[in-house]
Automatic annotation (TrEMBL):
InterPro entries: Cyt_c_oxidase_su8, Cyt_c_oxidase_su8_sf. Pathway: Energy metabolism; oxidative phosphorylation. GO terms for biological process: mitochondrial electron transport, cytochrome c to oxygen. This is Cytochrome c oxidase subunit 8A, mitochondrial. It is found in: Mitochondrion inner membrane. Pfam families: COX8. The lineage of its organism: Eukaryota, Metazoa, Chordata, Craniata, Vertebrata. It is a single-pass membrane protein. Belongs to the cytochrome c oxidase VIII family. GO terms for cellular component: mitochondrial inner membrane; respiratory chain complex IV. The keyword Transmembrane applies. It comes from Engystomops pustulosus. The chain crosses the membrane at residues 40-58. Its main location: mitochondrion.
Length: 69
């Protein structure tokens, strides 16, 4: 147990404590208006990033099944 506590003490000394500036953490949310077009582009990009690779795999599933190992 003494070895564990000594190793833990060395780890605590090796990593300094994280101090966060209060000004950065207490800032409120920015009020930025996003147009409908920007929202639509964002949603299309988001859905395509997830659905295009999934669709590719599903459309080529028979090729993956018949692949020799």
């Amino acid at each position: 147990m003494a070895l564990f506590s000594r190793a833990l003490g060395l780890l605590r000394q090796a990593r300094p404590p994280q101090v966060m500036n209060k000004a950065w953490s207490s800032g409120g949310a920015k009020n930025t208006n996003i147009s409908g077009g920007e929202q639509a582009v964002g949603l299309v990009v988001l859905f395509s990033v997830f659905l295009v690779p999934s669709g590719w795999i599903l459309s080529h599933l028979e090729n993956y099944k018949s692949r020799p190992e």
